[in-house]
Amino acid sequence: MTDTLSLREALRGIWQADKYPIRGNEDWREAKRLDAEALARAEEAVMTPGDRPEFADWIAALRDPNLAGDERDEIIYAIHDLFEPDE
User: Fold this and answer.
1) Domain regions of the chain by residue span
2) Is the Cα dihedral 32, 36, 39, 41 positive or negative?
3) Which of 16, 21, 41, 45 could form a disulfide bond with 5, CB atoms 3.0-4.6 angstroms apart?
4) Euclidean distance between CA atoms 17 and 76, whole angstroms
5) Where residue 2 falls among pLDDT bands split at 50, 70, 90?
């Protein structure tokens, strides 16, 4: 039996991938791989009582290859605000 992945935890994975430090060219490849893995895992996430309704919209939008860059940035900023409220 597999554990259920909540939308919040899926977003946490996306946030962690986005925070990956880019210090050199090889880091860009690793960051892209981590982002792809987090988005793939997010596809399996389910709504749980602690999840806000917009979490599903954020994940769906981020998985859309046609999402405009500025829209992606707005969602990523909102995810960072979710997990880094005091920073």
Assistant:
1) 7-83
2) negative
3) 45
4) 11
5) low
